[in-house]
Amino acid sequence: MVYSVAQHIITPLSDTVEGNIRAILDKRTALTSHASVREQSLVKQVQASLFEHISVIKGYTHFESLCIQAVEQAVNNQNINITSPGCVFILSSTKGDIWVSMAQTAKNIAGYFGNKTSPIVVSTACTSGVSAQLTAWRLLQANLYDTAIIVGCDLQCEFIVSGFQSFEAVSRFPCKPFDKNRDGLNPGEAVAVMVMSTVKPDKEHVWCMLGGSIHNDANHISGPSRTGEGSWRCLEDMSEWVHKSSLACLSLHGTATVYNDEMESVAVHRAGLQNVPVSALKGYYGHTMGAAGLLETILTMRAVECGYVLPSKGYEEQGTTYPVNIAAQARHTDKKSFVKLLSGFGGVNAAVAWSLEEKNTPLHCSKWKTLGEITLNANENIDGLYRDKVNNYPKYFKMDKLCRLGLVSVELLLQKIKSDMHDFILDSEKCCIILASRMASVNNDRAYQKTISDKNNYYPSPSLFVYTLPNIVAGEIAIKNHIYGETACYVSANEEETERIVNASLWSSNYTQALVGWIDYPEDDNFVSHVKILIKE
Predict the structure, then answer these.
(1) Which terminus of the chain is more exposed, N or C, with fewer CB under 10 A?
(2) What is the mean pLDDT of the chain?
(3) Helix, strand, or coil here: 433?
């Protein structure tokens, strides 16, 4: 079994889990009205909310200092050997420290504590916090480590907020998840830490993770599936670990955007979970991005173990086609399990199931073999290869360079496999995509920054912004090949370090095919991809 043995959160409402619970029950919110970035100094406002009482550690950035202090509080007075080679750090973040490599940021945080194990960065858009929990669970189940320290953090800045505003997704007023009058999200920020371990602590309430699931919509990189395809598949998978009759609640994403909440309501109904109480916490914190999955999981844990479901702030009147059982006020519950669900850009959806009651977790342990592989580097003309060998994806020239490299690499590999094995068919239901990169989307980060740097020629582009997320490359491959399985992107120092992540993910999965690879495009004249097709033996 894998247990959650320690937690800590820092938000604008409180520096403790208990303080945040009290703030929610008192209906306090960290949200304020937001005009556009050009109309007010939003960057200064949101950073002050966290940094006015959090000291910066000499030699570390604001981001790193916040994460370090949250970890210190989480492990304080806990029997955790943080320097042990059996302890791994996992950073969950959508954009990290913006202009610092997320791999380096994670290394700096782990290094502060004297931990020499190579840290892992999970960057799968808004699902990062849930995907990180599943990554930790797999690594621990595979006995690669005995302890995982997950740090979820994102801090708002003009880069991020202007991107959401370019999609016209930001509300000028406190958001209203699932409400009839919802009109967009609020950018939020927080840091949340969860320590997971295979060793059960000696205390009254111990949460154990039953399992998790990730699915892609295979629909659109910046718009949720109208049928809730990926979220529905994740919720269906949860039935393998927990019966709906034992669920205290569903902790949903609930961004308060028109399409996200509608999609989630469809997925909940398709999964037959419309009567399960729903908690949506964005009305208190806004969208905390890479911290959201951990923050909302920890708060739900603490509430359910105390016998209630947290209320959803901002909800007044049903606003989705299919009604969901929103808890507008705190509700009593005697049930001991819950499911956390998130979705994000790149078509990715993720869910995890937690319970206070230990259960035997079914594992689909398996061995895999390589069916074929291909390597491309800066000696190749990627656009030329696309025109000559692929040339069947109308979106290709709208994509950033990392996505072009990934898509062309996979298409050439599939052509090679089909040429060698004429009966090979890519199974859209049983195939997953697991990629890693060192510099991720840095090329497009620079391109997007140019669009917001000149205040006299200010034109933040949604098509550029969405490609600043590392996981979009996996999303484009999924859409092109209609793959509904897991899509993931890890930011790692090198290709070798990602092997244990891939092995743990596949060892415990029920997929039969996997597209895995290292895809890095830091500079125009310096890129490499190495992708493989694996099949279950």
Answers:
(1) C
(2) 91
(3) strand
